[in-house]
Amino acid sequence: MSEVKDSQGPLWEVFIQTKPGQPFKHAGSLHAYDKEMALQNARDLYTRRGEGTAIWVVPAAAIVASTPEDVGPFFDPQNDKVYRHPTFYVVPDGIKHM
Amino acid sequence: MNKQEALFTYCLRLADTSLIHGQRIAEWCGHGPFLEEDLALTNISLDLIGRASALYKYAAEVEGKGKTEDDLAFFRNEREFYNLLISELPKGDFAYTISRAFFMSAFDYLYYSELLKSNDETLAGIAAKSLKEITYHLRHTSTWMERLGDGTEESNKRLQDAVNDQYRYTGEMFEMDEVEELMAKEGIGVDAKALLPKWEKMIDETFAKSTITKPENVVMQSGSRKGLHTENLGYILAIMQSLPRAYPEAKW
After folding, report:
1. CA-to-CA distance for A24 and A14, rounded, in angstroms?
2. Helix (H, G, I), strand (E, B) or coil at A30
3. Inter-chain contact B147–A45, Cβ cutoff 8 Å?
4. What span, in angstroms and rounded, lies between the C-alpha atoms of B19 and B74?
5. Which of the four pLDDT bands, split at 50, 70 and 90, describes residue A9?
6. Which of B174, B171, B177, B166 is nearest to B220 (CA)?
7. Which of B67, B82, B131, B154 is the most exposed place for a label (fewest CB within 10 A)?
8. Contact residues, chain B, for A10 at CB < 8 Å
9. Which residue from B minimizes the CA distance to A32?
C-alpha cells in the first residue's frame, strides 16, 4: 500500500494578541501553503469570536523546542532556589499585567 | 412606481443577491478542500447571509405590510427573486466558486464603498458593516485567484474555464433600470454603471497576476432585474425553502 501523502501543506503555529500591549499567546496550529494563506486561515480559525486584535503565524518547522530529555538538566536545578521568586516585596496597585 | 416601492425593490435586489450567493457558498460546508478553507468559505457564506438578513429586514420595514425577513427569503417564488444571475450559477469546483466570489467581491467592494455615502441612514449603516467583510472576501478570493491561476497546469485550466463560463454574467452587475436610476437620483442608491471602469481595472490586475486570459467579445446575459433566471435558481430555492414551507411555524 502506498503511503498517503499529506496534501494539506506545511504546519504553522498561531499566536494571538488579545489587546494591544498584551503578550502574544499560542492559540493552536493550522495548515497553509504560504504566509498570506497562513495569516488568513489563522484569522478564520482562531479569531471568529473576537479573540484577538493581532496575529502572528510562524512555520512550525522554524520553532526550536526542548526535548523531554532536557527536563532534568533544564528545569530541576531551579526547584531549590526560592530566592529567585519575587515574593519579598509588595507589587504596587498601579502595576498591571504582572 | 413611487420612491417607497423603488426602495423596497432596491433592497430586495441587494438582499437576494447576497442570500443566493451565501447559500451557494454554504454548499461547501463540510466539503471544503481542507479544513481551514472549509471554515473560510463558511465564514464568507455567513457574512453574506447576515447582510441579506439586514437588507430583508429593512425591505420589510419599507414595504410596511408587516412581513418579516424570513417571509421575504422563504415565501417568494423564483420569478419574484431578483438576485444577479451570477450568484445562482452552480457551486462547481473550487476554482468556479473562487472565480465567482472574486468577481462579486470586487464589484461589492466598489458598490458598497459608494453605498456608504447613501443619504438613507439604514443602507449607509449596512454598507459600513458589510464593507469590512467585503474587504476581507476580496483579499481572500484574489489571493486564491493568484494561487490557482499561477499554480499548476490543472489549477490554471480550471480557473480559466470558470472565468470563461462566468464572464458573460458579469455585465448584469452594472445594469441600471428605472428603479436603480431613481434610487441613484435620490442619493439613496448607487450608479452601478459608473463602477465598470474601476471594476475592469481590478479584474485586469488580478488576471495579470494570475496568468488568466480575459474573455473577449462576450455577449452579456441579463434578466434578473425582471425575475428571469437560469434553470439553477429553482433548485436552490427548493433546497433553501422546503423546510420553512413544510413547517412555516418552525423555530430553533
Report:
1. 9
2. strand
3. no
4. 11
5. confident
6. B171
7. B154
8. none
9. B36
List, in order of start, the domains of chain A with CATH numbers.
11-88 (3.10.20.520)
Using alpha carbons, select from B86, B79, B77 the residue that is nearest to residue B221. B86
CA-nearest residue of chain A to B42?
A44
Question: Does A31 touch chain B if contact means CB atoms closer than 8 Å?
Answer: yes
For β-strands A11-17 and A54-59, DSSP reports them as antiparallel
pLDDT score of A82 = 75
Give residue limits of the domains in chain B: 3-246
Query: What are the beta bridge partners of residue B244?
Result: none
Torsion from C-alpha of B54, B55, B61, B67, nearest 10 degrees: -90
Tell me the residue type at B70. Answer: D
ipTM value, please give it.
Answer: 0.83
Q: Quick one: which H or E segment has residue A17? A: strand A11-17
Work out the number of other CB atoms within 10 angstroms of the CB of residue A42. Answer: 25
State the smallest CA–CA distance between residue B33 and chain A in angstroms: 9
pLDDT at A1: 42
User: In the A/B pair of chains, how many CB contacts fall below 8 A?
Assistant: 30
Query: Which residue carries 486570459 as its cell?
Result: B213
**Hey, is the C-beta of A45 within 8 angstroms of any chain B C-beta?**
yes
Say if residue B212's pLDDT is above 70.
Answer: yes
pTM: 0.90
Q: Is A26 helix (H, G, I), strand (E, B) or coil?
A: strand
Asked if A28 reaches chain B (Cβ–Cβ under 8 Å), the answer is: no
CATH of B3-246, picked from 3.90.78.10, 3.30.70.100, 3.20.20.100, 1.20.1260.10, is 1.20.1260.10
Range in A28-37, A42-51, B38-47, B129-138 with the lowest mean pLDDT: A42-51
